[in-house]
Design a protein that fits this description.
By secondary structure, the chain is α+β, with helices and mostly antiparallel strands. The chain has a 3-stranded antiparallel sheet with strand order 1-2-3, covered by helices on one side. 5% of the residues are buried.
Amino acid sequence: MKTAEITFQNYKKKGNPYVKARQYVTLLDGTVYRAEGSGKNRVDARAALQRNIDNRNKFIQTGMKKDNGEVTLQYLFHLPGAAEDHRTVGTECADRCFF
């Protein structure tokens, strides 16, 4: 997994100081994603950033919907009422799924 350096930005929200961490990351499916995480200090911001990256990779591994609207075949199998036969999954679920 290719990663770039983490940039930190200090900001105030309702008078309280916070830190935002940003990083460009190549995810498991090969897409480049700008991950962000914020916290009260750099350690919290970095932990939130890593948690967001792990959650995004978990969604990709389980076959959830992508941001651009594409639906993976694995996601179609997890829909309630989907056919057991893999050849008819795409046609029967086309009414319920947004492609």
